[in-house]
Structure of NAD(P)-dependent oxidoreductase:
Amino acid sequence: MSPRFDTILLTGAAGRLGTHLRRGLAPLARRLRVSDRTEIADLQPNEEAVLCDLADADAVLEMTRGVDAIVHFGGAPLETSWQTILDANIRGSYNIYEGARKNGVRRVVYASSVHAIGYHKVEDHIDTNASHRPDSLYGVSKCFVEDLSRLYWDKFGIETVCCRIFSSFDQYTDRRMLWSMLTFDDCVRLVEASLTAPRVAHSIIYGTSNNRHKMVDNSLAGHIGFEPQDSTEPHRAEVEARLPPADPDAPAARHLGGWFVNLGHPDDEQKT
Amino acid sequence: MSPRFDTILLTGAAGRLGTHLRRGLAPLARRLRVSDRTEIADLQPNEEAVLCDLADADAVLEMTRGVDAIVHFGGAPLETSWQTILDANIRGSYNIYEGARKNGVRRVVYASSVHAIGYHKVEDHIDTNASHRPDSLYGVSKCFVEDLSRLYWDKFGIETVCCRIFSSFDQYTDRRMLWSMLTFDDCVRLVEASLTAPRVAHSIIYGTSNNRHKMVDNSLAGHIGFEPQDSTEPHRAEVEARLPPADPDAPAARHLGGWFVNLGHPDDEQKT
Amino acid sequence: MSPRFDTILLTGAAGRLGTHLRRGLAPLARRLRVSDRTEIADLQPNEEAVLCDLADADAVLEMTRGVDAIVHFGGAPLETSWQTILDANIRGSYNIYEGARKNGVRRVVYASSVHAIGYHKVEDHIDTNASHRPDSLYGVSKCFVEDLSRLYWDKFGIETVCCRIFSSFDQYTDRRMLWSMLTFDDCVRLVEASLTAPRVAHSIIYGTSNNRHKMVDNSLAGHIGFEPQDSTEPHRAEVEARLPPADPDAPAARHLGGWFVNLGHPDDEQKT
Amino acid sequence: MSPRFDTILLTGAAGRLGTHLRRGLAPLARRLRVSDRTEIADLQPNEEAVLCDLADADAVLEMTRGVDAIVHFGGAPLETSWQTILDANIRGSYNIYEGARKNGVRRVVYASSVHAIGYHKVEDHIDTNASHRPDSLYGVSKCFVEDLSRLYWDKFGIETVCCRIFSSFDQYTDRRMLWSMLTFDDCVRLVEASLTAPRVAHSIIYGTSNNRHKMVDNSLAGHIGFEPQDSTEPHRAEVEARLPPADPDAPAARHLGGWFVNLGHPDDEQKT
Amino acid sequence: MSPRFDTILLTGAAGRLGTHLRRGLAPLARRLRVSDRTEIADLQPNEEAVLCDLADADAVLEMTRGVDAIVHFGGAPLETSWQTILDANIRGSYNIYEGARKNGVRRVVYASSVHAIGYHKVEDHIDTNASHRPDSLYGVSKCFVEDLSRLYWDKFGIETVCCRIFSSFDQYTDRRMLWSMLTFDDCVRLVEASLTAPRVAHSIIYGTSNNRHKMVDNSLAGHIGFEPQDSTEPHRAEVEARLPPADPDAPAARHLGGWFVNLGHPDDEQKT
Amino acid sequence: MSPRFDTILLTGAAGRLGTHLRRGLAPLARRLRVSDRTEIADLQPNEEAVLCDLADADAVLEMTRGVDAIVHFGGAPLETSWQTILDANIRGSYNIYEGARKNGVRRVVYASSVHAIGYHKVEDHIDTNASHRPDSLYGVSKCFVEDLSRLYWDKFGIETVCCRIFSSFDQYTDRRMLWSMLTFDDCVRLVEASLTAPRVAHSIIYGTSNNRHKMVDNSLAGHIGFEPQDSTEPHRAEVEARLPPADPDAPAARHLGGWFVNLGHPDDEQKT
C-alpha cells in the first residue's frame, strides 16, 4: 500500500522530538520535508532538508509549498526572552499558518504544551475545554498559536490538532515526570493519530503516556484515536530511589505546569 | 441453571439484526417469541413465531401477552416515506408500549439510532444527555420512541434501554464505519446487557464496538454493564485501501449521522 | 411604518389563546390568515379565515401558501385519546412543517408546553437544554414537534421557536397557577418576540409571566427578547383565600407538569 | 529500598478492613501503629499496638505523635444510635484531626462511605463533586468528616483522601454487592494509592472494584492513581443462583446506598 | 384573613436576628413560640416564651410539640470552642430535627451561613450546588446541619430551607459588608419566603441583599421566591470614607468567608 | 471626598472611546495621564498628555511609572494588517504589562472585544468561560492579551478586567447594533466598575448595554458590579425603518462577531 501522504513538512526536525518524529513519520509519507534553523544530521533517502528561520515569512511560504500536512514542532522549546518568543513562536507560527493558507495545506499538527494551561491545579482534572492559564511567556506563545489556529479553522478551513505535550525527554529529572511523561514512542503515536484521524476540525489533546496518575481528562479528544501504549511505572522504583519527593503543596507540585510556575520573568533573568 | 427469562419477545426478528439476536438471546430465555411482518426462516425449537404488523394494535396487544421482556427491533430500519414512518415506527412502537403496559411487561430494549442525534458534530463528544437532533424522518421517529418510553417509565414504571445503534452491518461500505460499526456480536452483548442489568430505569446508551476513534461518550450508561469486545482495527487496512477518504469537512463527515444528513426529504424523492 | 410581515398564518385561531393572539398580532402583519377546525367569530378586516383540519395534508399545503410566518397554536390543547393526539398534533404538525418547507416559509412559532418536560422536579430548575420528560401523550406530541422542528431547521433552514407555555387561562383554578401562569398579554408578548427576534435558529423558551416563584431557567433564550410584564402577585391573596394549599410533596406539587402527572392513560379513561 | 514512611497510624485495626490493611500496609512503613478499642490479635514484629477510645482527646493526641500518616478506619462501621455516632465518629474523628494538626501529620486517608451519598440514584452516575445525600446517621457522620477534613486542608494544610467505600465484605449477601463490592485486595490498593500519590490535597474517591456495572464516576480522582484489579464477575453465577433479584424500582435498588435507605431511625429501633 | 400558620417556633429568639424575626414573622402565625437560652425581653401578646438549652433533647422535644414550622436560628453564632460548637450547634440542631420528626413538623428554615462555603473564591461565582468548604469549626457545624437536614428530607419528608446568611448586622465594620450584607428587613423577607414557598423540598439559598457586587449565584433557588428589596449602595460613600480598602488578594478579600479564613483554631486561642 | 486614585493612565485616549473615558474617569483620579500616538485635543487641567507609540518599550516603561491603575484602550481598533496587529496590539500590550510589572501597578482594565469570541453562535449564550474563537487577526490579538494578562495575574499578582466590548459607536450602521451596542455612558460605567470593584483577580466581562436581546451571559462577572443603564430600544423604530433586516442564517447574523466573520485575510486585501 502506498503511504497516506505524498509530502509532510516537519518543522523543528533537528530538535529532541523532531529526531524521533523523523523516524516515526517515515511510513506515513512518500517524502518528509524536514526543516530547522540548524543543519539536520543523517538525512535519509525519503527526506528533503530545508534550512529555514521560521521568522522569515518568504522562506516559510516557499517551504510550505506542495505539502499535504504540516507537523509544526519548531520554535523555542522552553521559557526564554520575549524577543525570542515573539520571533520564533509567535511570528514563526503565524508564518506557518499563512504558508498553509496560501499553499492549500489542509491539516496541521501543532506542538502545544502543558504550559498553556500550567496554572491549573493538579486536582482540578481539567479537560481540553479549560481556559488558558499559561505559566510563562513560552506558555503564552502556545496559547497564541492555539487561538490563531482556531481562526484558521473557523475562517479558512485548515484543520489543526494542538497536542499539549507534558514532558517528553529521555531522562527523568524529577518525580513529576512519572505522571507527566510522554515517551518518544507515544509522541510518535500521538502525531500519527493526529495526522490520520478522519476529522479533527480544531482539536486540543493532552499528551502524556498511559501513566498511573492521570491529572487531565482527554475524553473530549476521543475522535483523534490516540492510544498511548507506554507507562512510566517500570521507572518508578529507580526514579523514587534517586530523586526526592516534592512537598505536595509546593507551587511546582500544585500546578500542572510544574517548575515553570517558579520561574521569574525571563527578561529579568537575562540581565543578571 | 435455568434461563433468566421465561419468554422474551423479539420484534423485527426477520431483519438483519433480528437474525443475530435470535441466536444471541437464545440462552437468556426458555422461549423466544419472534415476530416480524414477514415469515421467519429456520424456526428453532425454542422459538415461537408471530406474524404481526406492528401498526395493528390488537395484534400487538395479543403478541405481548405473557412476555417478560421485549426486544423491540421492528419497524422501518432506514429513511423512508412519512406514511411508513408513521405507521411502522410511531404507531407501531406506541402499540408495543401499550401492549407492555396492559400486559405488565417490565422492561423493553429498544433499537434507537444514531440518527436521533445525527446533527451533532463528531468533535462535540456528546454524552447520552445531549438534545435530540434527528437527521431524517427516521431519526424523528427514534426520538419519538425515546420520549414515549420516558413517559412509560415515569408514569407507568416500565423500564427501557434505548440503544442508539450507529452502524451494524456485515460489510464496510464507507470509511465512517471504521468508527461507527457495532459488530453483530457486540450488538448481542449490548442487548444482553440491557436485559440483565440490575436497574435500567429509562436509559440511553450508544452502540458502537470498541473502535479506535470514539466520537461519543457512554459514561452515563455504566450501569448497563455493556462492554464491547470487538474493534474495527483489523479491517482498517482493507477498508482504507478499497474506499476513498472523505473530506473531513463534508457534511457527512462533520456530523454523527453520516450520509443521512445529505438525504433530501423522502417524500420528494418518491415523486421522482 | 408598514407592518413587519405581509401575511402571518395563525392556527388554532378559534381557541382560547388564538383569540388573544388575533388581537395581539394584528399590528405585525398586513394580513392575518386565521385558521381553525371551527368557524371563527368576529372576523376583522385584516383577517382572512381558513376552515381547515390540520390532518388534511393538501388543505394545509394550500393554507400555508404565500405566508411569511406561521404561529402554530392549533391541535388538541389537552390530554386526550391517542388517535386524536396522533391526528391533530402529530400528523397535523407534520403537515404544517411540510407546508412551510414546500412554500418557503422561514419561521414558525410553535405552542409547545410545560408538559413536554412535566416530570422534571420543581426544585431542579431546568433550563431549556433539559431532556424531554413528557407527562402525558399530549406532552409526547409536544416533544415530537420540538424534535421535528429541529430537523426542519438543521436540514431545511426553517427557524422555529418552541414556546413551552405553562398555564394561560383566564381563571385561577389551583394555587400552582400563581407560579405557572402566563397572562394573555404576556403570551402575546412572547409570540411577538419570537416572530421579530433577529435570529432564532431552533430555540426553546419557557412561557410564564414574571411571577414571584421561578421554577425554570430561561437564560438560554435571551436572544428571543421576551420580557414578561405581568405577575400573579396581585391575585395571590384572593387565590390563597379561595383555594387550599397543596401538600408540597404530592406528585402534582413535586413536578413541573402539575396535575398532568396524576392522569392515567387517556384511552383507559375513555372506556369507563 | 527503605519503606516510604517511618510510622503509619492505622485506626480501627481490629476491624474487618483493619485486619487486611495491617497486612497490606506493612511494606509501606517501618512501623505500623495499630489502634482499636479492643485488643488486636496476632501482633506482628513491625506493629505497635495502642488501645484507644477515639472519643478520648488526650489519648488520641498521644497516639498521633510521631506519625507520618494516618489511615483512619476507626469508629462505628454501620448505622447505630446517635450517641454512638456522635462519640465514635464525630468526636472521634475530630480528635484524630486535632492530633494530626498538633503533631504535624501531613496526610490522612479516611474511610468514608457510599452512605455519605446514598440517596443519589444509581442511574445518575454522580462524580465526586456530587452533593452530600446521606442515607443514615452513619452517613451524616461520614459527611461531617469529609467537611471537617476539607477545613483542615484549606486552613491547616493537612491532606486527606476520603475513600467512599461501597461494600467490602468477605461474603455476598445480596446481588447489589456484584456492583458495589470492593475486594479486600482492592481496598489495600486504594489505601496504598491514597498514601503514595504525589499530591492529594483534599480528594474524594469512590471505592469499588473494577466491576461490570459502574454506577459512579471516579474520573475526578485520577490523580490518586487507584487501579482496581479485581472484579465480581467470577462470583456472578453463584450469587445469582443463590440470591433473588431485587425489583429494579425498589428503594434499595434505586439508590446508591442500598438497604440503608430502608432503615428507620436507629433510636426508634433501639426502643423496640 | 387568618394567618397562614397556627404556631411557629423561633429558636435563637433573643439574638440579633431573632429580635428582628419576632417582629417580622408576627403576621404569619397566630402564635409565635420564641425560644432562647436567655430570657426574652418585651414579650408580645402573640408570643409564648420557652427557656431552653438546645443541647437538652427532652426539652427540645417538648418545645417542638404542636408546632407547624420551625425557624431555627439558635446556637453559637460565631467561631468558638469545639465543645460549644458540638453542644450548641451539632447536638442542638440534631435535637431540633428529632423534635420535628417526632412531632410531625413539616418545614424548617435554618440559619446556615456563608461560612459553610467560606473557602470558595469571590470570583468563582458558586451556585447553591457548590461543595462545602467551611472556613471554621462554626462553618463545619453549618455543613453538618445542611447534611443532616438533607437526610431528614430524603428519609423522613421534612422540608428545610438552609439560608446561607452572609452578614446581617446593624453596623458596617469593614468594606466587605458592602457586598455581603443582608439587611434585617431582607432577612425577614428571606425567612418569610422560605416559610411560604409552595414547595421547598431541601433547598439552599444565599442570603444577601440586592447589593451591587454579586459574588454568588442564587438562580437555583428561584422556587423560594426571595426578592431582596434593599441595597448597600446608599451606605457606600460613608463606609468607604471611614474604612480602608482591603488588598484585593489578601485571604479575607479573596474568599467568600472574609476574615473567618484568617482565624486560627479556636481552641488554641482559648488557651492564650 | 478625595478621588479614589492618584494617577490613572489611559491609553488610546485620542480614540473614539478614549475621548469619552477622559470625561468619565475624571472624578476617579486626581490626575489622568492620557496617552496616544497622536496629539490629544482639549487637554483638561486634570490631564497630563503623553505622546507614545506602544511598540516602544522604553517609552511605555516611562509612561507607566507612578501610576495606580491603567485603562488600556490603545492599539489598532479594527482588523488590519498583521504587522500593525503585531506591533500595536501584541508588542504594545506586552509593553504595557511589563511597565505595570516593573512599576508596581496593581490593576489594568483592558479593552478586549467580542472579536475574541466572534465565531461562537448567537444562540449558544456563552458565558465568560467560553473558549476563544477569534474572528480576525484583530480578535487573535485580543485573545493574546487576555492570555498574557492571565499570566501576569497568576504569576505577578497584577489584576486585570478584560472588557469584551461589542459595539460602541455613535451611529447605528446595521441592525445588529440594536443588540450589540454599549453606549458611551455604559462604557464609562463598565470601566469605572472595573477600576473600583473590591477584587477582580483576572476577570472577563461582556460589554453591552442593557439591550432587549441578550446574546451572552455575564453572570460570572457579578463581582465587577457593572450595571448598564442604557438600552437601544428607543432607537429601534428609527433603525429598523432605515436599515434592512439581515437573513437570520447569514454568517454575520449567525455569529457573535457579526460582519468580521465575513472579512477575508487583511494582508490579501492590502494587495488589491
Notes: The longest strand of chain E covers residues 29-36. The radius of gyration of chain E is 18 Å. Residues 35 and 50 of chain E are 5 Å apart (CA to CA). The beta strands of chain E are 5-11, 29-36, 47-51, 69-72, 107-113, 159-165, 202-207.
